[in-house]
Every structure is written in C-alpha cells, then in structure tokens.
Amino acid sequence: MTDEKLTPRNVDFSEWYNQLVLKAELADYAPVRGCMVVRPYGWALWENIQAALDQRFKATGHVNAAFPLFIPMSFLEKEKAHVEGFSPELAIVTIGGGEKLEEPLVVRPTSETVIGSMYAKWIQSYRDLPVLINQWGNVVRWELRTKLFLRTLEFYWQEGHTAHTSEQEAREETMRMLGVYADFAINEGAVPVIQGVKSESEKFAGAVQSTSIEAMMGDTRALQAGTSHFLGQNFAKAFNIQYLDTNNTLQYVWTTSWGLSTRFIGAIIMTHGDDQGLVLPPRLAPIQVVVIPIYKNDSERSIVLPVVERIKAELAGVRLKVDDRTEVTPGFKFNDWEMRGVPLRIEVGPKDVEKGTVALVRRDKPGKEDKSLGSAHGRSFVPQVGLARTVDLLLSEIQSSLLRRATTFRDGNIQDPKDYTELKEMVGNGWVFSWWCGSQECEAKVKEDTKATSRCIPLEQPGGKRKCIVCGKEASEKVYIAKAY
Amino acid sequence: MTDEKLTPRNVDFSEWYNQLVLKAELADYAPVRGCMVVRPYGWALWENIQAALDQRFKATGHVNAAFPLFIPMSFLEKEKAHVEGFSPELAIVTIGGGEKLEEPLVVRPTSETVIGSMYAKWIQSYRDLPVLINQWGNVVRWELRTKLFLRTLEFYWQEGHTAHTSEQEAREETMRMLGVYADFAINEGAVPVIQGVKSESEKFAGAVQSTSIEAMMGDTRALQAGTSHFLGQNFAKAFNIQYLDTNNTLQYVWTTSWGLSTRFIGAIIMTHGDDQGLVLPPRLAPIQVVVIPIYKNDSERSIVLPVVERIKAELAGVRLKVDDRTEVTPGFKFNDWEMRGVPLRIEVGPKDVEKGTVALVRRDKPGKEDKSLGSAHGRSFVPQVGLARTVDLLLSEIQSSLLRRATTFRDGNIQDPKDYTELKEMVGNGWVFSWWCGSQECEAKVKEDTKATSRCIPLEQPGGKRKCIVCGKEASEKVYIAKAY
User: Fold this and answer.
1) Looking at the domain covering A414-482, what would its CATH class be?
2) CATH architecture of the domain formed by A13-272
3) Partners of A196 in beta bridges
4) Angle, CA of B341, B345 and B349, to the nearest 5°
5) Where are the alpha helices (DSSP H) in A60-166?
6) In this complex, which of B46, B68, B133 lies closest to A154 when CB atoms are compared?
7) Which is nearest to B346 in space by CA: B323, B368, B327?
8) DSSP for residue B67
9) Residue among B36, B66, B70 minimizing CB distance to A43
10) Domain ranges in chain A?
11) Residues of A with CB below 8 A from B89's CB?
C-alpha cells in the first residue's frame, strides 16, 4: 500500500473501486486476462463470508460435497435454454494428456448438468428425497472485461442443488434459500437487500423461476448479490432423475439451485466504502480491531507496550491485530488500516497509560445521531477498565450503524415516477419503483430507452392494481428498475 | 448402501477398497473418465482434515489466498524440469468464449509458476519477506486409470508456497511443514508416517530437494501421504522474483512448496479399514458416535426415545447422530454404520432404560490388550450416569489404539534383508530398510528387478557406514524400499 489517496468516489466511482481493491490488497489481476488473484486479506474476508453462509446452510439441513470441474459438452446440450444461455461463455478443454479429446470438456460455468447426472444415479425412491447438497468451488465464464470481484473469468462461489418430491416443496426451498441469503446479507454484511422475483428475460438459463437479492451500491447502481432458482422438472427430465413414489410409480423430481459468489465482496466494498478506503462490517471483518502503540522513544515504548499486550489478552474474544511496525509512523498506520477498513482502532500512548484510558476511533465515521461517545478529532477516550465490554458494544453499534446508513441511502435513492417521461429522467440517478404490466415488450422498451433493466419484482408489494408505467395497461405488480453491475 | 458384504481384504485388497469407497458413500465415479465426485460423507471427512491442517498452518504464520485455475502454457516452459515433469499430464483449454485462443491455457496441475509470477510483482524489499501463503483448491493431472481418492484426473488439495531471504530459512520451512504433516497424520489421522527425503529420481519436477511422509497401507504397500519441497532459486530465477536486501542489493528469493491432498482419505481407509468397512479415527470422523434406539413396539419406543434424546443432549460436545429410521432393522443399522466407520455405537433398549445403562460398541474391535471395558458379544454395558466422560475417554482410547495397531502392523512388516537376493524376496511382502550408496543406478536396478521404488531416506538414521545392499560400495544412509501406490 502506498501513501497516495484514492480518486474520490464522486469524481470517478469506477476508478475509486479499482484503486481500492488493489490498495487494500484484496485482489490483483492475474497474468491470464480476465482472471483474478484473491490476496490473503480478501480471502480472509471470503472465509468469513463462507463460514457465515455455511452455518446457515447446515442449520437448514444441507450438506456439502464436491462435483467435478469438467463436464462433457453433450451434457450442456441436454437442456436447451441452459446451453443457449451458457454457450457464449464457455472455456473448453480439447487436449488432455497430450492427445486431442474425442469429446471436448467444458470447464463448469455452473453445475446443474453434472450434478443432475449424479442425482439420476443416486435417487431411486422417495426415501432418498429430499437431496440437499451444496458445493463450494470455482467456476469459469468467459469474460475479458475484468472488474475484480464483479466480473472475472474465474470466480469462487457456492452452488446449492436440491431435489424434491413435489413442486411445492421445491418452491419452498427456493424461497427459503433466498431468505437465507437476505438474512446473511443484512445481518452479516450490513448490506440491505431486496428479495424479489426476476423477470422472464432476466432469469437463469434453464430455470422456471429465478429470484434474487438486489442491493444498491454507493453510486446508486444495482447489484444482484445472490440468486435462488426454481428449476421445475427441466433438469429432471433432461437427466432422467426419477424416483419411485409411495405408490411405486416412477416420478420426476423437482429441483432448485442457488448461488452466492465472491461478487458479494464487491457489494460490501461499494455499499460501505468511502474516500479513505474500505469500510468493513465488524461481523465479517478479518481484523475487527487494530491496536496502535504511540511512542516517541524507547522509554515511552517500554511504558506503552505492556499495556498493549494486556489489552490484546483482554480482547481475546475479538479478531485483533497489534501493529507494532517500527519502520512507519503512526499516521501511516492510521491511513493503512483505514484503507483496509478495520472497523475500530485503539491507540495507546504514554498519556493514556498514565490516565488509564485508550483512544478509540471508529472507521465508519458516524453522523451526529450515531455519536454514542464523546470525541475529539474523531477520537473517543475510554477507560481501560471494562474495555472488552466497551469494544463489544461498539462493534455491534458499528454493525447496526452501517446497515442504517446504507438503508437510508438506498431508500433516499428510490423514486416513484409519475409517468414514463419522469421514469427516463429519474432512472439515471437512482432506482425507480414502478407499476408494470409484466410484458417483455415494456421491459425491452425501458432497456432500450434508458439502459436500465428490471431488477426484481419484490416479494413485498403494495397490492391493488394500477396502470403500467410504460404502456398504460393494467398492472398488478411494482418492479424495481435500475442500471446494474 | 446395500446389505452385501465387502470382498475380504485378504482375497482382493484392491477390490475391497473400491467397494468400500462406494458403499460407505465416500465418493463415486463422475461421468468424465478419471474424475471423481466426493459425496457428502467423504467431503465432511475432508472438511475435518482441512480444519486440522488449516489450524496448524495458521499457527505457523501462514495465510490463505486463491490463485487462478488457468496458467499460460509459456509459464510452465520457463522452468525446464517442471515442464518436462508435467507436460504429459496436462489438460489444455484451447477455446474460450467461442474463439480459438492465441495462447493455450493449462488447467493448473500445481501452481508454482502462476504464484511465482505474482510473487515477482508483490515482493520488492526484504521487508516483504517471508511470504507464507497457502491455497486450498482443485488441480488437474491427466490420469485415466482411476482409483478414487488415490488417482483421479482432478483432485483437491492444499498447496503452500513460501518465499524467503535465505537458503537456510527456506530449508527450515521445508522441514517445518514436513513436521506439520507428520504431526497431523499421526495425531489426527492415527496414520503412523515416516518423514524422509526423496531420492533424486523421485523428487518433484523443479525441486532441489523433496521430502515426504510415507505410510504403510493394510496390504503393506507404501503411500506418499504429503510432500514438502525445497525449490532453491529455480522458480525465483525462472520468474525473476527478486528483492532489495538490507544493503540495497537485488537478490533472488528462495522458495518452498508443500502439499497434501484428498489422497490422504485413501491413506485413512487403507490404514484402518477392515472387512466390515471403514474405520475412522475419532478426531477426524464426521460422526463420532451413533446412537441406535432398540425397541419392538410403540410402547417400548416411547420408553426408549426420551432416554436417547437425553443422551444426545448430554453428549453435545461430540459429533453425534441418532439413527431413528423406522424402515430398517437395528441389525441393518449396525452394519450400515460399521461400513461408514463410525468409531462408537451406543445402543439403548428398554432393559437399558430399566437398568440405567447403555450398550457401547467400539468400531475398532481392539485386541485383548486394549479391552478396557468388560464385554459380551462385543458390547460393554456402562451406566448412563457420567456417560459424557465415558465417551470422551473411549474416543481418546480408540484414537490411540488405532495408532498403536497401525504402528505395530507397520513395524512388523519392515525387514532388513542381509543381501540383495533376500531384498528381492522380502520386498514383495512388506517394506525393506536397507543401506544404499545413493546412486541412481542402484535405485534403477531395484526398480527393474522388483517394481519397488525407494520411498524415502528417513530423517532418523542409525549412523555409521556399511555396504550398499545393491552394489556393495560404501553407504552412509539407509533407505525404505517398497511397492507403492
């Protein structure tokens, strides 16, 4: 990390993002165009995301497994919409062990097909159902316009694949996992998301119905942060996944799939980040508290360091790092850890030792209404006694404050235009939430006129009927429309 | 799982292994030849292996990151020995996004080259060193003679890659990580392993020195269960990984790499398994204790189940499963969980409820010297009171007993032949441990005559000098020679 400042968000949001990812050492560009290296700090964040999700998957009865990277090309062709959707994005292995392959192998862009083929083998009877399996892994979708975490050729994710005896059960599973994603995003990531159904033209290739969680980034653009699909019997029929029901009759299963990827790191960056760098929600932060000893000479150092060590021991319950580098100044360290988004900084100097206090600095720079502690130059001085409890409370407060701030920002940037002319003006500057008749024609017209797309038809609807904002015909639902990542 | 028995180990060890992997539902064959599906039970075992290793890596100062799956073909060519070793095993992507690629991409068989290219970018000064990074992921080495876990086209592993300022530090790291693997194998896997140095002809393609942990399987063949390599400056020079030292002079770094894979699951199976199926060491077992309620009718059931629930609550500290399936008999359940290697079974019937006892059955069927509890038909009857402590002690005892048994077996199958003729006879039936002059000619002769290979030159040596068992020239080291997986 260098001492240079980031390009401010309001000057060039995209450039701000690119610089932040590199300077906070979250990720880097790999030698192969389109590929990404996730650096240790970024991967530690992903590991915390994984842990928070995995716990929720297991609590809802799911188990993990691993399916192969390579899929025969012919498998993708078994589901028509699926192959049409994914063909342009495939990486294909044609040579193996020095020989040209008879059948090319696709590097998985997603695993419905290969998992479907295994489910056909494993599932015989209604007693084998439901099958509730998740996989953590890497997938490849050919993409050269790289944007680290948001758009890369290879990315990391989890993909859940479940099989059920009834349509209703599979639909319930689809919505259950959408709810798990929303709970995770809101309560762990402090990213307020809206749960909804994707339009026909935005749905997953091969799904009957797709749902998503949608978040608003700091530039007001939308980001699809997780998806959950009801696949009906499309893959069951393509791969012949059948079971004997209680009447001993062969039936096709009903399947779902759902995924959340390293893209979510992009959502965290663009929801909470500011011009000083990353701002991490405490529940996911690899380092929750950084402690910086302040001293001018060896004599002060010998007074300060034992207190720092005691604080470290006392705060054993939080993810804490002591920055005792001697080759850089405290000021450099402040900037460095602000760039990396550590939620809370503790400074300990000789005066603090004398007074039995420490200085606390919140990374999230709350507005007036959030100032729970007195402060000077952004610092609060609190007693060393009871510090563990103070820090716990403050981390919780930072977590809620980030969510509040992001929610306020989002709600302040959603508008309800009175007509289509106003929609076109408003959609460049935030989201709109409008009545829509549901026709693909109206959706296509909006996209052509504004480059904005329908994000989702939210589960929460006002009810009643109005006129479609585009064509004026009867509409029974409202839809979010926005420019999206 | 079916009721059929496994082919006994002494009839056909290889067939026993193949059947066990499928019947215990650890893994399955994928549609692409050579590929493997790791089923949920096998993956849960791998997750426990990962956790035990990851904790050790972090305790020794390492962090995790993720490097890309695709490597430009030209990168492999930069290190001569490396490309020669790996070329015959590569899977190559030639088509991406519908177009023929200008430069083919290799699906990583290991990541020294791509990680080297990133280290060249990240490392500038001695202050940036050491770099201690590990990666959990999948790699591909073309291989069609599939043996699940042991030999598959794609497998899962971790690969550590470190860079240091001095040769000594890099050599220390190589041995430190070998020690970490040995500690893990012995204390978590109950797999007694021997740490040693590989011969020149058996070393990693691109290494200066390779070391390994070697284990003896139930058929007395050897299995290399983890490797740690000192790479010298080979990759530093190939990828120009240089740093400014304290005198402001450019220097090449010294690097290491080390890996342990899903192959270790094969080691566990073949070290501890018996004719009834898998036997898992308690510390890694996904399920440590299975509780089976025994009853003949609803009335008995209503007496037994509340006790089972209480036991489950009391044993909250262990990984426990209650098997309350009603469609299968207790006998079926016994066989089923024995096949899956669950270390301890608890049976609770109406008589147990009456007497305040439970029946315990150890999966590892200890010999006389291990019988710490009285028994009848393999069952021990113990009071429900204090069960948590009884179970803890018993799981520890099973863990040590497995290690003792495997060590005794191994040591009983290592021989010290008096001459080369005896070596040739003995090596078909266990390992030999012989003096060796270190020449590649002698090693090649043994391989040609016996199909056995040098496994490792163990770190622990008797000292002194004798005659090479092959050529009779002076030898200062002993080597393990065995047929290997």
Assistant:
1) alpha beta
2) 2-Layer Sandwich (3.30)
3) A212, A458
4) 150
5) 73-76, 80-86, 112-122
6) B68
7) B323
8) -
9) B66
10) 13-272, 289-410, 414-482
11) 97
Backbone CA torsion sign across A265, A266, A270, A276: positive
Instruction: With CB atoms and an 8 Å threshold, state whether B93 touches A92.
Output: yes
Q: What are phi and psi of A293, to 5 degrees?
A: -75, 135
Q: Is B65 close to A36, i.e. CB distance below 8 A?
A: no
Residue of chain B minimizing CA distance to A96: B91
Where does B71-212 have alpha helices with state H?
73-76, 80-86, 112-122, 167-187
How would you classify the pairing of strands B254-261 and B250-252?
A: unpaired
What residues in A contact B95, CB-CB < 8 Å?
90-92, 94, 104
Chain A residues with beta carbon closer than 8 angstroms to that of B63: 40, 43-44
Q: Do A114 and B30 touch (CB under 8 A)?
A: yes
* 3-class DSSP assignment, residue B70: strand
| Cβ-Cβ contacts under 8 Å, A117 against chain B | 31
Q: What is the Cα–Cα distance from A190 to A279, expressed in whole angstroms? A: 11
Pairwise CB contact (< 8 Å): A71 & B32: yes
Dmax over CA atoms of chain A, in Å, equals 84
Query: Pick from B7, B29, B28, B25: which is nearest to B17 by CA?
Result: B7
| Residues on chain A touching B122 (C-beta within 8 angstroms) | 28
Judged by CB atoms closer than 8 Å, whether chains meet at B69 and A40 is answered as no
Give the type of residue at A193. V
Tell me whether residues B64 and A70 touch, CB distance under 8 A. no
A102: left (phi over 0), alpha (psi -120 to 50) or beta: alpha
Q: Which helix (H) or strand (E) holds B292?
A: strand B289-293
Rounded Cα distance between B11 and B15, Å, is 9
CATH code for the part of the protein at A289-410: 3.40.50.800
- Asked if B96 and A98 come within 8 Å (Cβ–Cβ), the reply is no
Q: What is the phi/psi pair of residue B125, to 5°?
A: -130, 165
How far apart, in whole angstroms, are the C-alpha atoms of residue B107 and residue B90?
Answer: 7
Longest CA span, chain B: 84
| Tens-level pLDDT at each residue, chain A (485 residues) | 555 799 999 999 999 999 999 999 999 999 999 999 999 999 999 999 999 999 999 999 999 999 999 999 999 999 889 899 999 999 999 999 999 999 999 999 999 999 999 999 999 999 999 999 999 999 999 988 999 999 999 999 999 999 999 999 999 999 999 999 999 999 999 999 999 999 999 999 999 999 999 999 999 999 999 999 999 999 999 999 999 999 999 999 999 999 999 999 999 999 999 999 999 999 999 999 999 999 999 999 999 999 999 999 999 999 999 999 999 999 999 999 999 999 999 999 999 999 999 999 999 976 544 444 444 557 899 999 999 999 999 999 999 999 999 999 999 999 999 999 999 999 989 999 999 999 999 999 999 999 999 999 999 999 999 999 999 999 999 999 999 99
Cross-strand pairs, A194: A214
Q: DSSP for A184-236?
A: HHHHTT---EEEEEPPGGGS-TT-SEEEEEEEE-TTS-EEEEEEEEEEETHHH
Q: Which CATH number fits domain B289-397: 3.30.470.30, 3.40.50.720, 3.40.50.800, 3.40.50.970?
A: 3.40.50.800
Nearest-CA residue of chain B relative to A120?
A: B31
Q: Is the ipTM of this complex over 0.90?
A: yes
Q: Looking at beta carbons, which residues of chain A come within 8 Å of B65? A: 37-40, 42-43
Choose among A91, A114, A156: nearest Cβ to B96. Answer: A91
pTM of the model: 0.96
> From the list A65, A91, A127, which residue is nearest B38 (CB)?
A65
* Cis previous bond, A130, omega within 30: yes
